[in-house]
Design brief:
single chain; about 80 residues; mainly alpha; elongated
């Protein structure tokens, strides 16, 4: 899978969790559900017809977004990349 590091490619989105978000989008768009069945990534996620790798990226994205709201992140730093 292609990973998008903000320093290497220069994503337009410079916010927190941008790398995880880009990887999740790529994974969902490359899944069989989106390609063959012509469904949206949201529909595929609701049906659970995505690879385990995408589900793990979804969990990582959730953890990254949750760490933004966590006051302890001042000491630990943001999760994700």
């Amino acid at each position: 899978m292609v990973t998008f590091a903000p320093d290497e490619i220069g994503l337009a989105d410079q916010t927190s969790c941008a790398g995880v978000r880009a990887d999740l989008k790529t994974c969902l768009l490359n899944s069989d559900c989106c390609k063959k069945d012509k469904k949206t990534p949201r529909e595929c996620l609701k049906e659970g017809r995505v690879p385990d790798e995408c589900l793990q990226l979804r969990q990582s994205f959730f953890e990254c977004k949750r760490s933004i709201l966590d006051n302890r992140r001042r000491f630990r730093g943001l999760k994700g990349y």
